[in-house]
Amino acid sequence: MSKVHNFSAGPGILPQEVLQQASEACINFDNLNLSLLEISHRSKNFEKVVEEACALVKELLSLNDNYKVIFLGGGASLQFGMVPYNLLRTEGTAGYLNTGVWASKAIKEAKMIGNVKVVASSEDKKYTYIPKQFPVSGDLDYLHITSNNTIYGTQMKKFPIARCPIVCDMSSDIFSRKVDGKQFGLIYAGAQKNMGPAGTTMVAVDERLLGKTGRSMLSMMDYRVHIKGGSMFNTPPVFPIYVSMLTLRWLKKNGGLEWIEKVNNEKASAMYTEIDRNSMFTGTTEREDRSNMNVTFVMHKPELEPEFDKLWKEANISGIRGHRDVGGYRASLYNALPLESVKALVNVMQEFEKKFA
Ligand SMILES: *Cc1c(COP(=O)(O)O)cnc(C)c1O
Fold first, then answer.
1. Which fold has domain 16-254?
2. Using CA atoms, how far apart are residues 329 and 298, in angstroms rounded to an integer?
3. Do 356 and 304 contact (CB within 8 A), yes or no?
4. Which of 8, 71, 72, 77 for mutating ligand 1's site (highest number of atoms within 8 Å of CB)?
5. Is residue 92 within 8 Å of residue 115, measured between CB atoms?
6. Of 110, 188, 293, 348, which is most buried with the most CB atoms under 10 A?
7. What is d(CA 337, CA 344) in angstroms, rounded to the nearest whole number?
C-alpha cells in the first residue's frame, strides 16, 4: 500500500499506530478474546477506557476537579442546543461571537432556547478574520466562541477575557496547542477532527455552572445526568471513545501539547511560507488570524485548477479541495499529519508554479 498524504478536513487523519491498535481491539480487546464491539459498556475493561480518556483530557487541558469530562453522541451539532439548554437561564441572555458557519449554526440553535446577543461578527468580510474588539457585558450567562473555524481557516490566537463564563467550540483545534482549559466554563469538541473518529463529542464543563437555568430538563439533554452516569447514562459510543483514548495516549506519549504545538507550528509555517512565496496562489484569510489547522488558499488563475488537481493526485495527496462555501483549496494539518506530507504538498505547489507560471 503506497502512502497517502491525508489532508482531509474531517473526519481527519489518525496516527497509524492508533488505527493498528483499534483494529486489533475489534478482534481481541484487552486479551479477553472478545471484540470491543461485542462486550458490555459496563464491563470493567471498558470502564477503564472511559476513565483513562477523561483523565487524559483533564491532564492535557490542565483542568482541576471543578471540571467534569463526558463523552456523548450526537456530534458537536447537538452541543449547539445542549449548551444553551443547560447554561442559558429562562430569563437570561447568552453572547455569541459569529466567526463562521459553525458559529452561526450554534447561534440559530441557541435562539430556539432563549435570548441571544451576537456580540460581534465577521460575516461582513465572509468570515476571513476574527473580530477582536467587542463589548461583553458581565450579565451574560455565557459567551460562546469558536476557537478554530474549520471552513474558513481562521483561528483565535488569543481568547477573550470576560466577566461571564466562556464556552468554546474547540472541535477543530482541540489538543493542537497549549491551552489552559480553566479559562473556559465549558469546552466541547466533536472527536472527528483532531481527537479521534466520528461518533463522539467530548464535553468538559465546570460543574458549578450547571443546574441554574430554571427549566425542567430531558434526561438525555442534561449534562448533570451524563456526569452522574460517568458517560454511561445510556450506551455510549464505545468504539469512538476507545479510539479517542488511544489518540490521547499517543499524544501524551510523544510529548503532549508542548510537542504537538511545535510540530503544528512547523507544518503551518511551511504551508503559509509557500502560499506567500508562490506566484500562483494566495491565502484567503487575514494573516494574523491564519489557522494552524486548516490552511485555505485559492489560485490566481482558477482555470488551471484541473492541472493542479492532476499534479497533487499523482503525488498521492488526498483531501485538499476547499469547502463548497469557500472554493479553492484547504489543507487540514491535524495532529497526526506528518511534516513530510506538508513537504509533499509544497513540492507539488512548486512544481505547478514552474510548469504554469
Ligand atoms: C465539524 C465541526 C462542527 C460539527 O461537528 P459535528 O460533529 O458534525 O456535529 C462544529 N463545530 C466545528 C468548529 C466543526 O469543525
1. Aspartate Aminotransferase; domain 2 (3.40.640)
2. 6
3. yes
4. 77
5. yes
6. 293
7. 12
Rounded Cα distance between 256 and 262, Å, is 10
Other Cβ atoms closer than 10 A to 62: 14
Instruction: Choose one of 78, 104, 150, 325 to mutate for the ligand 1 pocket test, by most ligand atoms within 8 angstroms of C-beta.
Output: 150
pTM beyond 0.90: yes
The dotted CATH code for 256-356 is 3.90.1150.10
The ranges assigned to domains in the chain are 16-254, 256-356
Report which protein residue has its CA nearest ligand 1's atom 1: 171
With beta carbons less than 8 A apart as the criterion, state whether 210 and 84 touch.
no
Which residue type does 203 have? Answer: V
Residue 70's pLDDT band, with cuts at 50, 70 and 90, is very high
What is the full DSSP assignment across 316-341?
TEE--BPPTTT-SEEEE--TTS-HHH
The type of residue at 177 is R
d(C-alpha 335, C-alpha 296), whole Å:
17
Q: Assign residue 289 a region: left if phi > 0, alpha if psi is -120 to 50, beta otherwise?
A: alpha
pLDDT value, residue 2: 61
Q: Which three cell numbers stand for residue 23?
A: 483494529
Q: Helix 339-356 vs helix 256-277: angle between axes, to the nearest 10 degrees?
A: 0
Contact 192/77 with Cβ under 8 angstroms? Answer: no
Q: Which residues are catalytic?
A: 102, 169, 193
Rounded mean pLDDT of 316-327? 93
Look at the block and give the residue holding cell 478536513: 9
Question: Does ligand 1 come within 6 angstroms of the Cβ of 172?
Answer: yes
Q: What is the mean pLDDT of residues 326-335?
A: 96
Identical topology for domains 16-254 and 256-356: no
Q: Using CA atoms, how far apart are residues 292 and 295, in angstroms rounded to an integer?
A: 7
Q: Per-residue confidence at 63, pLDDT binned at 50, 70, 90?
A: very high
